Amino acid sequence: MAGVRSIAFKAFRGAITLTLLSCVPAAFAWMRLNNAEETLLPDELAVHDPRVAAKNVVWVDARSEQDYEQGHVTGAVLLTEEKWESQLGNLFEAWQPDRPIIVYCSAGCQASHKVADRLRDLGLDPIYVLKGGYDAWKHHLSRAMSL
Description:
It is a single chain. The protein has helices at residues 2-38, 65-70, 84-94, 111-121, 133-146; strands at 44-45, 58-61, 77-78, 101-104, 127-130. By secondary structure, it is α/β, with parallel strands linked by helices. It has 2 domains: 1-39; 44-146, Rhodanese-like domain (Oxidized Rhodanese, domain 1, 3-Layer(aba) Sandwich). It has a 5-stranded parallel beta sheet. α4 links the parallel β4 and β5. The N and C termini lie far apart (55 Å). The model is unreliable at 27-36 (pLDDT under 50).
């Protein structure tokens, strides 16, 4: 009887060990997501920041024209470095001095930071960059719609 208990205990211990080990990837993913929120640059906004949901924001899409045409934040103005001179006028038509500007691109892309820097060089303020870009905004919007 002792041998059966020993085998059962070893099987139980093995099952518990496997269960705990299966949680490790999820724990690392959770920590990575939470750390991403903590590593915002001074000019970045997280998608859940109340300033992102404000009605008076001027959205600037720094992605390619093709990406913009496939989908963009409602009312966003397309402004890329490649077509800066021809597109800048569209921004000034939408912008007013009391309206903050939020620039976005795709997740992992640096175009939004470059466009934001150029806008700051023109004296526009405040200018923010959306952390995670259009993908984060779209994901946040779909989660809000499903509630």
